[in-house]
Design a protein that fits this description.
The complex is a heterodimer of chains A (160) and B (121). Chain A has 3 helices and 6 strands; from the N terminus they run βααββαβββ. Classes of the chains: A alpha+beta (160), B alpha/beta (121). At the A-B interface, α2 and α3 of A face α2 and α3 of B.
Chain lengths: 160, 121
């Protein structure tokens, strides 16, 4: 099925751009009529995915970028986030609710993404990098300014 | 020329009886917010202060790293023989601690006076 509308953005690997991505999520979700609680969940899922991409995937390397795509369908919002790192094995991520892991400092990001979204997929890209797909179902369909593809390049220190 | 700095988290410390009530506001996220919280707890411990009540009422956002920092602080304070408790969770923070099962770990309060009184002498 073809998406009704697509929005793309490219960010430099800088943690300050996590908030820029959250702002984009807010704008998209507001347009789509998601309520405040659902917006927060989607925003947190994107926040955690951006951190994974910038911090763990691209190792904070400013020469590497994070690509974010929103695809809006009548029944769902699909968000793809792609980094240029070496990838990770999701099966190796320990479950944070297991008794031995409860007091671990890290390892809750993927769990939160899974908890907040309706579907979550991780794909290792053939050349390099990892792409995660986050899906949130829509309760009611709304239009986003007539569809089409809109590309944004955002972020601090991004050349003209 | 005035420079504007983005401060992700603010913290002020009040002594109530022998308890350090830490009023936190803003974002506790990977980077500055987490570093500030880590240093604050480390600094209190280095001064022999082992009773901490973190007031999260004005915390607008906390991510998985922020949760990790709370857990790290809890462990550090417990290992020093002290207590670290939480006060005034927003619904969002409460929900996060619930789904991560950390409400079973932290002693959580919504009344400051009762929270202060709950610390061991």
């Amino acid at each position: 099925m073809k998406a009704d509308s697509t929005i793309e953005a490219v960010f430099e690997s800088d943690l300050r751009n996590v908030e820029a991505a959250e702002e984009l999520v807010h704008r998209v979700c507001t347009s789509l009529g998601f309520d405040e609680e659902e917006q927060h969940k989607i925003s947190m899922a994107v926040h955690e995915s951006m951190i994974n991409a910038i911090w763990h995937g691209n190792k904070n390397d400013p020469a590497k970028h994070v690509w974010v795509q929103f695809q809006i369908y009548e029944d769902r919002l699909e968000i793809r986030i792609r980094d240029e790192g070496t990838g990770f094995d999701i099966e190796q991520v320990p479950h944070p609710l297991e008794p031995g892991n409860l007091l671990k400092v890290s390892g809750r990001g993927i769990f939160l993404i899974r908890s907040f979204m309706d579907d979550f997929q991780v794909k290792k890209l053939p050349a390099k990098g990892t792409e995660v797909t986050l899906v949130k179902r829509r309760q009611a369909s709304t239009d986003l300014n007539g569809g089409g593809v809109h590309r944004e390049h955002e972020g601090h220190n991004t050349p003209g | 020329m005035e420079e504007e700095f983005i401060v992700s988290m603010r913290a002020t410390i009040r002594q109530v009886n022998s308890v350090n009530v830490v009023d936190l506001s803003g974002r506790i996220t990977l980077g500055e917010g987490c570093s500030q919280l880590r240093e604050l707890i480390r600094d209190l411990l280095s001064k022999g202060q082992t009773k901490m009540l973190l007031n999260l009422g004005d915390v607008t956002y906390i991510d998985s790293s922020g949760i990790g920092e709370l857990v790290s602080g809890f462990t550090a304070v417990s290992n020093a023989g002290g207590e670290l408790k939480l006060l005034n969770l927003t619904k969002k923070v409460h929900d996060l601690l619930q789904i991560t099962k950390l409400l079973t770990v932290f002693d959580v309060h919504d009344d400051e006076a009762k929270a202060v009184a709950s610390f061991k002498p």
